[in-house]
Amino acid sequence: MLFIISLGLGACAGAHKGPLVGADRDAHGCIGSAGYVWSEPLQQCVRPWEVGK
């Protein structure tokens, strides 16, 4: 029984292929998929629609 459970867990662990969602940080650490871009004037990651730039 334990062997069957461990096989099932092993299959689930290897099922994910490709990059994780949100794992797309740029050189400044901004997460593009969440809408963040680097702002030179503010020196931080921002969402342009939130700061109006």
Structure, explained:
With 53 residues, the protein is of the alpha+beta class. Helices cover 30% and strands 11% of the residues. A hairpin with a 4-residue loop joins strand 1 (37-39) and strand 2 (44-46). The longest helix is centred in the first third of the chain and has 12 residues, at 2-13. The relative contact order is 0.13. The model has no long low-confidence stretch (mean pLDDT 81).
Widest sheet, order of strands? 1-2
- Structural class label: alpha+beta
The low-confidence runs, each spanning 5 or more residues with pLDDT under 50, are none
**End-to-end distance, in Å?**
59 Å
Order of helices and strands: HEEH
Using DSSP, what is the number of strands?
Answer: 2
Helical percentage: 25-40%
Q: Shape, please?
A: rod-shaped
- What share of the residues does DSSP label as strand, in percent? 5-15%
What would the average pLDDT be, to the nearest integer?
A: 81
How many helical elements? 2
Please summarize the sheet with the most strands: 2 strands, antiparallel
**Radius of gyration, Cα only, in angstroms?**
19 Å
Topology:
Elements: H1 2-13, E1 37-39, E2 44-46, H2 48-51
Antiparallel strand pairs: 1-2
